[in-house]
Protein: DRBM domain-containing protein
Organism: Littorina saxatilis
Amino acid sequence: MAKQQKTQKYIPGLTPRPVTPPEEDGAELEYDQGYNVPKDLRKDYRSGAKNPVMCLNEMSQRLKLTIEFQETAAVTSSMGGFAYLCFVDGEPYGPGQGRTKKDAKIKVARIFMDSALGITKKPIGAAPPAPKGMAPLRQPSASAAAASFSVQAAAAAGPQAAAAPDLDVEDVPCRTEADRFARMAHDKALDLIAQYDPALFVHKWDIAAFVMKMGPNHEGVLASLATGLGCIASENLTVDGLCLIDSTAVVRACRGLRNFLYKEIRSYYSNASSILEVGQGNMLKLKDGITFHLYTSCPLSGDYEESVNKGPSDALTAEQREEVALGGHFPYFLDEMNHGALYVRDEDGICERVLERTSPAPEVQNMEDVKTFVEKMEGDGRLVMSTSDKVLRLNVLGLQGALLSQVMEPVYMSSIIVGSNFDHGHLSRAACCRLYNNIYNELPQPFTLVHPALHPVTFNVGHYFPQEGHETTEGLNWSLAKPDTVELTNSINGKLTQKSPDNKSRTRSSTLSKSYSLFQFKQVCRGFRQDLMTSQNYRQAKDNATVYQAAKKALYEHIKAAGIGHWVRMAPEVDLFV
């Protein structure tokens, strides 16, 4: 008999997260793939106790299957230079792609295991991969082929540019505020791509945006927007703060929002119009009615995406939906599924649960060990936390980050909107509800845990804003900080591309970089808050935010005590620049 799934009625700040253990192991398969996977092996794979290759090998021995890994052509360099197919009793699975052969085999083994367990369905009629050394044929999706066209790429883009999809955006139904925010983000992204980098139209990319409302009846305006995937390759990581380490869309959009906040701080101190005013203790704060709302076109990597891919949470009742409309959360937990666990991503995009072997980077007080930095990055230090975990941290520490917390009160998002694969039970858990209520007593004021409203998009984003092709390492970012400026970056090196309009400096550094953040902070300090001019480098500037650091320490200790993992930090050398 399948396990009876449990959902707890949750009102943020009033009731604890569910703790009822599952009654028995096992769950119904969504798809029948013809493999009777042993019960203990299913559990080991789902829990992460054994990696996909180990599970595949053990399964082949126990079920007498013939397996063969075959190297094939990499579909796109953005996901790494190695690719493997896996043949199980002659049936092909994959390809899996990575920057090393080991990573590629892990990915293709995961494809098979997910199919064998019924987590995903094996594609039917997929085109066979091209032999190694030959370019694969790409077939356009039906939705892309059927899309009408109304927006054209700029003629200046040149003959090599891809054609922009002519999308009749007037047909997009906007029934809710979340729909309107999603359309604003996609419209802006399409406009910027058509104007600055039409080649992106032949790729898939995530979109994230922060929408600012200036009152309950205000329709909202985009404050920042970014597209992007992936993180920097370890060999390109530097210690000068000039490269972007995490180029995922949500992280980039958040950094763009911080640039906008810096602009508003300068405006306030210059007696110009600003969204800020003085709060307690001479700290700035948002004016009443100013709210920020996060839109992401795709599921947040980590706890949310991994859980959604393995199955939906329980459907909400009519009563529960009414409470959700008022801000209630109903998080979904199954202990055997490791719901709520922290995840790390490596440069190949592989997302894994944080295990005991993944330890925080050692503390370093000076630059003497920088020569060994690259070697350290080959270990756990090159890992970055998943987007689900970073959103969880934003809901505790705020959108403003450490530096700005010395100037202004925490800024929290009021809602999260997910464009595809929305699941309230999984999202509420991943974004906030995996922390226990005693976190409120552990955090120093004015920090707290917020539970933003959670919304789906009611129209089919993939239908009205179709994408085809493969994922790309290139992305763009824009914000109200400099509304006439757009940056194009590459996630592999974390720098501006040659096509970026502002690619004039020798360093090709983005305004989303840590170095630029420190530059803006020093600008504010020199002009308006000279009492904060005490730091020697970026790390000291962040450490001077003592209340923020105390809140971060409390959060990390709470995470560890809750048994959901620990926060993996990049090696400290990356923050020692001046």
In short: The mean pLDDT is 81.
